[in-house]
Amino acid sequence: MPSTVSTRRATATALAAATLLALTGCSSDDAGDAPPAGQSEQAQEGQPTDSEEARDTTALGDLVPGDAHDWGDGITTTITSAHEIGPTDLPEGYTVDDGLTAFWINMTLVNDSDAPLDLSDIGTRVEGTTTGGSATPAWVPDVSASLQGELAPGHQMEHREIYAMDLDRYGRDIAITINRWQLAEHEPPVWRGTINPPA
Prior knowledge:
Layout lengths: L4 E2 L33 H5 L5 H10 L8 E3 L4 E10 L10 E2 L4 E11 L5 E2 L3 E7 L7 E3 L11 E2 L3 E11 L1 H4 L2 E8 L9 E5 L5
Antiparallel strand pairs: 1-4, 2-3, 3-5, 5-10, 6-9, 7-11, 8-10, 11-12
């Protein structure tokens, strides 16, 4: 099956991505804050406060680019943005298959745990949320790569991947799901947003 990004000599290898990409929008400033003092009576009555409801919603997957997901073991993941790739952003000789549009998925990984994070444990999926569709990951040397190696305790890293999808057919609204295979019991976080025009 042809890859979405190819060289003049050979089709570029499409492979499963590590963590994933992002969109427009921003999170509520008080989504992670404690309930205001004026809501203490509401909290005492056992009713969820506005802040608690926001946290619960985020936990269920209503994340937007810029929101960080805490995995509960010292690891946090943030999808920072999703941007269409401009015609001059790919190395010479690489093109996108007809009908498809390539875009970046940008993310930040933070390891505040006491153990190295195996980066190959992270997987990403990007799907359209208007009329369906699934984006295809693509590997381009020196531009986009899969997550490999380890992230040491106390460190963070920026990572980006290339995906391609038929935006005329499926639209620009996407959902980005990140999995950690060693935490199969953990509900995977989902970021929802829009693929922005080229930066």
